[in-house]
Amino acid sequence: LRCTYPVSERGGWTSDGLVVEKGNRMRAQQGLKLALVCVSGAAVLWLWVSWSRSLNDPTTLTMKSQPCGNITTGLSRIESVSSLLPKRSPKFKNQECAVPNQVRKLSNKEKHLKSRCVENFKRDHARGAGEFWKGETQYIRHKHHRYLTSQSLVLDIGGNKGEDADAMIQAYHPGIYVILEPISSLFTLLVEKFKSNENVVLYNFGLAAKDSKFYVNVLGHGGDATSVFEGNKGGNCELKVFNTTNFIYRLGVPCLDIDLITINCEGCEFEILETLISSGLISKFRHVQFATHPLLSHLEKPVQRYCEIQERLARTHVIDYQFKFCWETWKRKDIS
Ligand SMILES: *[C@@H]1O[C@H](CO)[C@@H](O)[C@H](O)[C@H]1NC(C)=O
Ligand SMILES: *[C@@H]1O[C@H](CO)[C@@H](O)[C@H](O)[C@H]1NC(C)=O
User: Is the CB of 210 inside a 6 Å radius of any atom of ligand 2?
Assistant: First the structure.
C-alpha cells in the first residue's frame, strides 16, 4: 500500500439510485406490483443504510478477501531463527557485543523540533509523497544502496512479492538477504521466487513490540495491502508477529552489525523503529530505510510517533535521503 492512499479512497461501492427510479415507476401500476414496490423499496433502504454505514467504517472498505495460502512450516516459528554470526565476515563483527543505553528523554530542542514536525505534517506529507511517487523517483529505494557488497547483510521486513528484494539482490548481490513476510500466500511466492538463491533467508512472520497473533482478511493483489492497523481483524488468515528485540538478538546482534534494514510493512514500522531505538539496538544498523504509512485508521498517533522517531534517530544516524512521511534512509553517523 502506498504511503499516500487515504483509507477512504480504497474499495468501491456504487449507490443504487436506478432501483429507486424503477420503484417509482412501478408504484403507478396495478395492485399486484405494489407488493414488489414495497420489497424493492425496503431493499433500496437497506442497501442505502449499509452503504452509508460502510462509508464511516473502514473495516468494510475491503476489497474481496483473498485466500490465505494457509501453510504451516517451521519457518513461522521464532525458534527457527539461527545466528548469522558464522556467516558474517569479521569486518562486521563486534568484539564487545555491547548495546549502548538509548533511553534518554527528549531535550528541549528535540521537543521543539518534534512539534514543528507535527505542525507541518499536512504540507510535508503532501510534498514527500507527491515527489516520491512522481516518475521514477520511487526507485531510489532500490538504487540508493550502492554501499552494499557481496559481504553485506540486509534485513527486509515486509517482503511482499519480492520486488524490492529482487531489485537489490540483482544490483548488489548481498551475501545474506533476510526476508520476513507474515502472509502465507506471499511467503509461498517468495520461497518459489528465491528457491535457487542460497543467500536469501526467509521467515514466515512479522515483527512488532511483542509476540502476537492476528486473524485478518488478506487484502489487495495477492495480499500486498493487508494491514492489522486498518481495522482489519477478525478474518480467518493467521498472521504471526514476534518481539523485535528477541528476533534481532537471535540473528546475532549485537555481536554483528547489519548493513541495511529496509522496512515496508503497512504500519508496523512504528513499533519496530521504536523498539530498536529504545533498546539501543539501532546503533547496530549501519543504514535504516523505511516506508511510513501515516494514514492507517487504527494506528495510534502516527504523526507524533514519526516525529519523535525523527528526533531519536538523529542521535545516532543522519538522513541519507528523505521524502518526509513517505520513504527515507538514514546512515549511521560513523559511516562516511
Ligand atoms: C489453516 O490451517 C490450520 C491447520 O492446518 C487449520 O486448522 C485452519 O482451519 C486453516 N485455516 C484456513 C482459513 O484455511
Ligand atoms: C521483548 O523481548 C525483550 C528481550 O527478551 C524483553 O526485554 C521485552 O520486555 C520484550 N518486549 C515486550 C513488549 O514484551
Answer: yes
Alpha helical stretches, state H, the chain: 17-27, 31-56, 108-119, 121-132, 140-143, 163-172, 184-193, 244-250, 269-279, 302-313
122 Cα to the center of ligand 2, angstroms: 34
Q: Which of 297, 294, 241 is nearest to 129 (CA)?
A: 294
Does 254 sit behind a cis peptide bond, omega within 30 degrees of 0 on the bond before it?
yes
Specify the residue with its C-alpha closest to ligand 1, atom 13: 236
The rounded distance, in Å, linking the Cα atoms of 92 and 90 is 5
In this predicted structure, what is the pLDDT of residue 65? 55
CA distance 292 to 253: 25
282-295 pLDDT, tens digit per residue, is 999 999 999 999 99
What are the residues whose beta carbons fall under 8 Å from the beta carbon of 81, sequence distance 6 or more?
A: 203, 247, 250, 251
Ligand 2 geometric centre to CA of 78 (Å):
14
Superfamily for the 74-332 domain: Vaccinia Virus protein VP39 (3.40.50.150)
pTM reported for the whole predicted model: 0.79
Q: Which residue has the cell 431493499?
A: 43
